[in-house]
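Protein modeling request. Please complete all fields; requests missing the sequence field cannot be processed.
Requester role: graduate student
Desired output: 3D structure, token encoding
Chains: 1
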Amino acid sequence: MAKELTAIEWRSDQWLFQFGGLRPDNVLEYFSQSPFWDPSSNNAVLKMQTQFNELQHSSYDLKSMVGIEFAVTHQEPPALFIITKFRRSSPTKVVPMTVYYITDGNAYEAPTLYSIVSTRMLSSIKKVEEAFDIARSHAVFHPSTGYMWKETAEQKSARNAALKDLHQQI
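Delivered output (170 residues):
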């Protein structure tokens, strides 16, 4: 099972200072220093294979490789870069696996839709549960009368005043 990295914020001030900040041509190199990087990705394999030869500065076609690859899918330099991790099975078939974003040099893993929806549902259910607990605390049951609401004298007078005002308006 993959490690949960959505709670991690990564930044390398030293790298940013050394290379003069993030640009479209160096953002993947910066990202490769992060814990989000997969060293077995096609990007890493190509970098290692061409590191010390004349192919180093030519453009490569990752589309001809099969496996994991990273690509910058959106950019608003220098503040925002979105990087997507893909699984490529053919030159035309890629499946997005994870989305990462770098904002002002800070790298994050974007949460999945499932985790967002489940968190929102859990917090909603918690609020409904709290409402039922409050309602249950005001209910009283007696075998001869059934369920009734407990009211303090103050609540009862407020309810009666509200009903009186409502009848006067009608």
